[in-house]
């Protein structure tokens, strides 16, 4: 009996149609005669889903008691006893009711698969264990019900059930996903367009990666060496020369012309590591490739064309980009070159582009790093072994005679030891001295500088030659090892600098501290001056050394242009360190320029904003403030006139006009003062823990009776706000909503808790605002549409957002399902422990038309009459059709 097959219907969010797609697949299989049963599927009273369940055999569920409630679960034993060909198991990430055999439903599915039963299941992308942190950063909700990625990766089929965010929100607004009383809260919280777009991208990318894995696995299992151009993959062959950046940019442009294009930059290094390119140049090319969305690969291979082609075919590449050869004309006698060889052997399925550049025919030499000298103590030991060693050996050999051949091998071992310790020169000295000792003590005639046997002459010559050759090879290997370690450190430093240049992440002080730590100095500073005769000033400094007034006072100084220098104190650096230090100096100058440009931009932005505010303020004063003043003056003049005998009704009407004009003036001046406080930064909120039902009713005093309906539950956690600022912000929001709401349609003010925040929504059924104008309505002196100029100066929403952000919250505008505008004010909860709040029944509160002391109903999104399934401890996830939670 083999293992069953798992098919997962994967969606980006609840409501995209995963269960519907699974049931449709089950109906098709039943029509083909497949024995298919339903192990566990929830239809949530959706007519279309319930219709697809008809005709399918359903295994009776097992009922378990939990916390005084009886909850249904899949009867795993009954399904195993029934042994169908295919079983439907909804919600793969579901947590089983305590008392079940397994804690998680995916563990039930594993048992079914092990029994040889095929399984159809559903899953949302946010329930993948590896994406928990990413989803939390997007939605603000930590998913407690997750599935290990390996379980989903082992699925035999993964079908993406996709839907655009706009279509999903329309489906929700029509009531096809949630009950009508939960739609507003869901659309304003978890199901925002930005959240849905990000989750959809996660789902698409995850499935695309799985498709690529399946393709690579298939090619490997079937030994497919031919290139399948499913998408453009462009391999860039790099030599470490200056043309590499040109090639990478050219490949990036080629990749942009095709959908899903990918750039793979590859450097082929020789296996012996003796011919190496400049690590600084390679680090820069790596950074450039990564900044353009590509990847960098380092491959070892003695046959460069063969290694490059093998890499391209293994990566299923479609194109190779190479630079024109830098060899001179006479150098072609050694072969056709890498480009010609790759083009000849590439075959018909791999295109090769030869790109021209400025270094054509200028020589093959690469800017490699110079070998570092060996340490003084090591060289001293080398000379000691190379000179004193042969003398000591000659004394020891005088006691017995092992033979000339053995004598030469012993002296040769000293030469090798001298090369390992001190390099080439001590080894050559050891070979020369040893040959003299061999001639004097061990070749006839003994104790004479002559050699009688010609064969001994040849032996000594060969000894010297072998000693010199071995010494040169050992010396080269030792130097290359030391050089490789140093260049690796340099490449890491240069890669760090190149990344910071592109991303602009490191400030000047952080960069100077990195310089000080890298070179082990006491202090590092960047000095500058305005002219040749001006004094030096310190632009940035780090460390504990003394402050320097000029570069000449430092132990190390690296000029940057004519009027700037990077200076260090602590010790004198060797010459080979100045190349990397020069890169640090250039980056420090860039960091300083970036900081000043940012400051200039901020000042320019502040001046422009101030000019705009002053211009708008003058326009407001010239019209909006003058209109109520003119009305007040006209009413007062009429009352003071002795020519007219006003009736009590007329007098009352004029007095009412005076009072209304004064109220308008007070409101306009208040908003102007609030806006000036926000722009001058003098708003200092006094944050404390407050209940919303203490503040929100106080903000409704200026609106007509019966124009607002409150829906603020008493079970909400307290919020960390400034009560005065919150009241003013809420008053402006409610006043704006009432202004645009249709007659007879009250504005809804509702609140709900989500994760560690509390959201207050002001919902109207007015004309609404287009998407492109939702941000502009929060700008100062803005009126949307054809609002009359006498309606205000357009500061209410700007003040509301400013006060909200000053308290650490946010204010955004969204569409109201069915028409209108919803203002969502997000505040920080004073406590993050919300498990008790989430599980409270919604029947403890009631709804009443706006009154300051009325009790209010639970917000949309809390658990309704349907049972709440137990979940793990911690914050509950987003409101989903499968699990009702806040």
Topology of helices and strands:
Blueprint: E1 6-11, H1 18-31, E2 36-40, H2 47-53, E3 57-58, E4 62-66, E5 69-73, H3 76-82, E6 86-89, H4 105-114, E7 118-124, H5 132-139, H6 149-153, E8 157-161, H7 165-173, H8 180-188, H9 193-221, E9 233-238, H10 244-256, E10 262-269, H11 279-291, E11 295-300, H12 304-314, E12 319-323, H13 338-345, E13 351-355, H14 376-397, H15 404-422, H16 424-442, H17 454-503, H18 508-519, E14 523-528, E15 537-543, E16 556-559, E17 564-569, H19 578-640, H20 648-680, E18 688-690, H21 692-695, E19 708-711, E20 719-721, H22 723-740, E21 747-754, E22 757-763, H23 796-806, E23 810-815, E24 821-828, H24 835-839, E25 848-849
Parallel strand pairs: 1-7, 1-8, 2-3, 2-6, 6-7, 9-10, 9-12, 10-11, 12-13, 19-21
Antiparallel strand pairs: 4-5, 14-15, 14-17, 16-17, 18-20, 19-25, 21-22, 22-24, 23-24
Describe the structure in your own words.
The chain crosses the membrane at residues 380-397, 409-437, 457-478. Residues 839-886 are annotated as: Disordered. Its EC number is 2.7.13.3. It catalyses: ATP + protein L-histidine = ADP + protein N-phospho-L-histidine. The chain has 886 residues and is α/β, with parallel strands linked by helices. The chain is extended and about 150 Å long. It starts with 5 loop residues before the first strand and ends in a 37-residue tail after the last strand. It has a six-stranded parallel beta sheet, with helices on both faces. A six-stranded mixed beta sheet has the order 23-24-22-21-19-25. A five-stranded parallel beta sheet has the order 11-10-9-12-13, with helices on both faces.
